[in-house]
Amino acid sequence: MAQADVVAEVEIVEGRLAMASVGQRCGAIYEALVRSTVKGPSVGSMISFSPFSGRGIGNRYVVLLVKAGAPGDSTYAYFKDPLIASRTPAGKEEEARAQCESGYAPLRETGWGLGTIEVKPSPHFDYRPAVSIRTLNYVSSTHFPSHCDSKMIGETCTGNTEILLDEFLKGLAMIYAGTK
Question: 144 vs 7, 134, 155, 170, CA distance in Å?
């Protein structure tokens, strides 16, 4: 959170694949409308971010993004993915990486893409917008209205935890206030 330049709820309005001239698939570049913000751009503004593919056009996400080259930039993590590495032409790794890097958006996803959390209607909360987080990647607590899909050990869910979007954003705002 302290490293993130943008912490916001966004809706993807456009996505496109990025390719290097050596034939390397570089991931994706997304254009997104900011629906609510904790840190960074104002509501209603448009932002672009890269590099992980698989985000759905029209879908909403809570994103933690950093500027290119900043601590937390997951660009190099993208190239370490075994599937991506296997598609890189032999002897062209650095050239492909440089070409991909130059084509990415100025904002980058954090945490190997785990800083991009999908927002979905939750059947556990009358189909209101919620996020589902894996306890392995994020601290999960019962301090917010939440639903654990596995068992609880003390206040920690051992599986996925669903948290209402509004409560999750409030929690991120509290964390952000503490990092200033």
Answer: 19, 15, 11, 9
Structure tokens at 180: 């200033």
Q: Give the residue from 75, 110, 67 showing the smallest Cα distance to 96.
A: 75
Per-residue pLDDT of 126-146, as tens digits, reads 999 999 887 654 454 545 667
Would you state the pLDDT for residue 137? 44
On whether the CB atoms of residues 25 and 78 are closer than 8 A, the answer is: no
Q: Cis (ω within 30 of 0) for the bond into 51? A: yes
pLDDT in tens, 63-96: 999 998 888 887 776 767 776 777 777 787 778 7
Say which residues have a Cβ less than 8 Å from residue 93's Cβ, sequence separation at least 6. 79, 85
In the 8-state DSSP scheme, what is residue 145?
Answer: S
Residue where the block lists tokens 């917010």: 144
Nearest to residue 159, comparing CAs of 124, 135, 130, 123? 135
- Beta pairing class for 46-50 and 107-109: parallel
Tokens in use for 51? 């590099």
